Amino acid sequence: MKNPIIISITLLVLLGSCVSQKKYTSAQDRASLCETNLRTSENQRTVIEGDLANEKNRTKSLEQQIDYFKSTNTDLLARLSDLSIVSKSGAESIKKSLEALNEQNKYIKDLTTSMQRKDSINLVLVMNLKRSLDVFEDEDINIEVKKGVVYVSISDRMLFKSGSFKISNRAEEVIGKISKIVNDHKELDILVEGHTDNVPILTECMTDNWDLSAKRATSIVRLMQTKFGVQPERLTAGGRSEYIPKESNETSKGRAINRRTEIIILPELDQFFQLLEPPTADTGN
Q1: Which of 141, 148, 147 is nearest to 177 (CA)?
Q2: 133-275, superfamily in CATH?
Q3: 197-210: per-residue pLDDT in tens?
Q4: Is it the case that residue 19 has pLDDT exceeding 90?
Q5: Residue-level pLDDT at 52
């Protein structure tokens, strides 16, 4: 029979040995778990750091995009501002151009209306003059429209004696008929021009053909005023001497045609010059 003491000691040793093994195994398990948890944590940290780096990159990219859009918007606003200025200036220019164009159109319309009215008056004048002067020889009186006005050309032999500015009795009849017609058109002026040939003249009363042509024109306007009641402010007398011939002065026939008095019926000069003035657009200044 074995010694109980030895058996007890042996059991205690064995029992102590079993307890230590369990603790060791448990410690190993805990260490293994900690190591596993540590590796998991390291992996998670690596993932988190990667995600953080990606987020930083995305944030940086977004910031760059924001800076780009800010710059683009600034440029766009500046361009829009410039465009606004240009558009305003362009609109003002277009407005002024349209105003000028409207004024020009109005001017053309008014001028056209005035020209049509003048042409109608000229037609009436020519018809009335030809009807009134029909009793006289056609070769002594010529009625025509030139440059938009009525010309009555009367030969020298019908109005004056050769080299004289004294009006004949037959001339008074012609001038009387013309005066009656122009008195029906108070809005018209009368210009009387004397013309000569190139044959020199020198008398006690006249130095040259300038004198002769001017005195003949003056005689006509004086007669129209004093005997036939044409208002003197409507009358103008002018001498043209030999310098606007209708025919060559080389022949007697040509010289006879050049010796003439022309009665020109035209709009009042003030109205005539107003028609020629272009309109000025109102700029608001």
Answers
A1: 141
A2: OmpA-like domain (3.30.1330.60)
A3: 999 999 888 999 99
A4: no
A5: 64
